[in-house]
Amino acid sequence: MKKKIVGLILSVCMLMPCTFSVNAAQNNASSNTEASLDYDEQQVDQEDGQSPMLRSSQSKSYKIPGDKGTLTSNAWRTTGNGTESGNTLQWDYQVSAVYAGSKSVESIRTTWKGQASLRSSATFNLGVNQSGVVAGAGSSWQTVTTPEKYWENDNGSKESSVRSNMVISPKKDYRADTISIINTARVYLKGDAKPYTITAGA
To answer: pTM for the complete prediction?
Structure first.
């Protein structure tokens, strides 16, 4: 009987994608636990039945001295000059902090910000509360940086992750190929007063 059930599950998975994930909505952003997610540069995959997404990504790791494990900062975003929606350009992104090691975690935080070249009072928003920035009114290009946002877990979890989207409006006042997302991972280990950090960007 068990063999028949396993065979049936395998048959279904060969006919359609089988995806298992853990999701929790926080601050209008989706927090997605994906410690094993492959952040390879220019990764192409298919999610939620949508078209494959081309990604720009980076995964930076820091080996904590004293054999205390490894902290990794992950950042990815969709590539190109955004998806047009009305008079806006939009990019999906995800950031995370992941600790791998035997030590207990006091707290782990992922802190991120966006950056782009804009003009003429264009707006740039990270898709979470109070995270926008407005360019100056002049016609010259200016590099603007959003306020930093963070998500922190202090419940013993070894990761902190957020997924959302970046929006620029109007689209004509965005300078092509200047969008970026920068993420800093920080961890406090129990019994260790020193924070450990590492930054990645995409």
So the answer is: 0.74
